[in-house]
Specification:
Helix Hairpins, disordered N terminus
Length: 342
């Protein structure tokens, strides 16, 4: 054996996991009974709802036929409304066109009147008479050169305006006939659109009366079934509440069972740790006993160095056992160390 002594290192304290509080096993029968009670309530309500549905179907019959007629009437009303919208748009367009043409005709007449006032004559005959009068005045009157020049300018202007009178007459005739040629056709089209609108509105009123009569007839026929429908809805609400309650009970059972299984798992882990520690303790005791037997079997007295080494080894083993016992029992070990004779 070596002469050097080996210093024993102290064993560290073992950290223990925090233990879970004891968790009782969930009462499977209690949870099963509660779930079955909710299931029975759901099944009973479901049977009542099915019975009510059959009664509702028998009372509220002919739904498909009613919906078909209702849809046909609704389509007819939509078609009439589309035609009315079309003629209403046409009426607005024609009204705006008539207003625009009337404004245009009024402006034409106003222009003719302005030209008439500006010329001062309404026919070429009036201009010819005025020219003749001015020429006669020049021939029979004693005029200064300035006065004569003024009369000549007037005659010249009258001759210049003479063609404008013919143009004025054409504009006046056009203004007079403008409404007849431009507005009257639009008025005829507007009257036609209004007449069509009145016809369509009358047809729509008739269809609406038929539609409302059909709805009223259906409401009267299905009135007895409304109470059954309300009862069905009430039972459906109760069934939903029982379904929610059943899910809550199932979730509660799963939660408690999970806690219980976690507690069992920790207990198994603690038992396994104790078994490992017990095996380690027995192994240490066996090694200690083997060392003691080896000392007893020595024929010769060992040298001082070997004796010291064996003594230290036994002390180290004893210390490990004491610390292990403290960990298990919470109190220091009471076993006395054996010291071999020198």
């Amino acid at each position: 054996m070596a002469n050097a002594t080996e210093k024993a290192s102290p064993a560290g304290k073992k950290d223990h996991k925090e233990k879970l509080a004891p968790v009782p096993k969930p009462n499977d029968k209690e949870f099963k009974d509660r779930i079955e009670a909710e299931t029975r309530a759901i099944d009973e309500l479901k049977a009542k709802i099915n019975d009510l549905q059959q009664r509702i179907t028998s009372v509220v019959g002919g739904r498909d036929e009613y919906n078909r007629k209702k849809q046909e009437m609704r389509s007819r009303l939509d078609e009439l409304q589309a035609q009315m919208d079309k003629y209403e748009a046409e009426r607005k367009r024609l009204t705006e066109a008539i207003d625009s043409r009337q404004k245009e005709g009024w402006e034409m007449k106003q222009n003719v009147q302005d030209m008439k006032r500006k010329l001062g004559f309404s026919s070429t005959e009036e201009i010819d008479k005025r020219i003749a009068a001015l020429e006669h005045s020049m021939m029979t009157s004693t005029l200064t050169l300035k006065e004569e020049k003024k009369l000549l300018d007037q005659i010249k202007q009258l001759k210049h305006n003479k063609p404008l009178v013919g143009k004025f007459a054409g504009l006046e005739a056009g203004a007079s006939s403008f409404e007849e040629t431009s507005v009257y056709p639009l008025r005829a089209m507007l009257d036609e659109a209004r007449t069509k609108l009145l016809e369509l509105r009358a047809l729509k009123r008739e269809e609406q009366e038929k539609y409302f009569a059909l709805v009223k007839q259906r409401q009267e026929a299905t009135a007895p079934g409304r109470e059954l429908i309300e009862e069905r809805d009430r039972l459906s609400k109760q069934m939903s509440e029982h379904m929610i309650k059943r899910r809550e009970i199932q979730d509660e059972y799963k939660k408690e069972n999970w806690k219980y299984q976690a507690f069992l798992a920790q207990q198994r882990q603690e038992r396994n740790e104790k078994m490992r520690e017990e095996r380690a303790r027995r192994q240490i005791e066996q090694e200690r006993a083997n060392l003691e037997r080896q000392l007893e079997m020595v024929d010769e007295e060992p040298v001082d160095g070997e004796l010291i080494l064996l003594t230290q080894t036994i002390a180290y083993v004893q210390k490990i056992m004491d610390e292990h016992n403290q960990t298990q029992d919470g109190s220091p070990g009471t076993e006395q160390k054996k010291t071999p004779e020198a």
